[in-house]
């Protein structure tokens, strides 16, 4: 199982998040005409732990981009995501066959917005970067 798969299973099992986004949790880019709020995730980097015979784990930076029709809706999803991930306790993430995640650490947050062709705010955007420590 990849870290992206484990995170997806975990995130979509969190009722505080799914009550806001449903299943609108996408890799890399937001679909056209997507209902808001929604979350897009992508791996920014993936340093690895190396051993003599194999790689034993990694600590990738995963960026979550949260989109909302209002600043409040994007902020609510961001807060639920932080509540679910920050200081995550060491367990198997992703259920059976998942990954042994030892830490999730919030590294950075940012606020932004996107405009339409007339310069009006189209949607609000929040990003949150997490470092996820896991062993394989």
Please render the helix and strand layout as text.
Elements: H1 3-11, H2 15-21, E1 25-27, E2 38-45, E3 48-50, E4 55-58, E5 61-68, H3 71-85, E6 91-93, E7 99-115, E8 121-135
Parallel strand pairs: 1-2
Antiparallel strand pairs: 2-5, 3-4, 4-8, 5-8, 6-7, 7-8
Helix pairs in contact: 2-3
Notes on the structure:
With 136 residues, this protein is α+β, with helices and mostly antiparallel strands. It has a single domain, classed as 2-Layer Sandwich (STM4215-like). 23% of the residues lie in helices and 45% in strands. The protein has three helices and eight strands. Strands 1, 2, 3, 4, 5, 6, 7 and 8 form an eight-stranded mixed sheet that branches. Strand 3 and strand 4 form a beta hairpin. Helix 2 runs antiparallel to helix 3. It is elongated. The termini are close together.
Overall geometry comes to elongated
How many structural domains? 1
What percentage of amino acids are in beta strands? 35-45%
Low-pLDDT parts are: none
Order of helices and strands: HHEEEEEHEEE
User: From the helix content, strand content and strand pairing, which structural class follows?
Assistant: alpha+beta
List keywords for this structure.
3 helices, alpha+beta, STM4215-like, 136 residues, 8-stranded mixed sheet, 8 strands
Summarize it:
With 136 residues, the protein is α+β, with helices and mostly antiparallel strands.
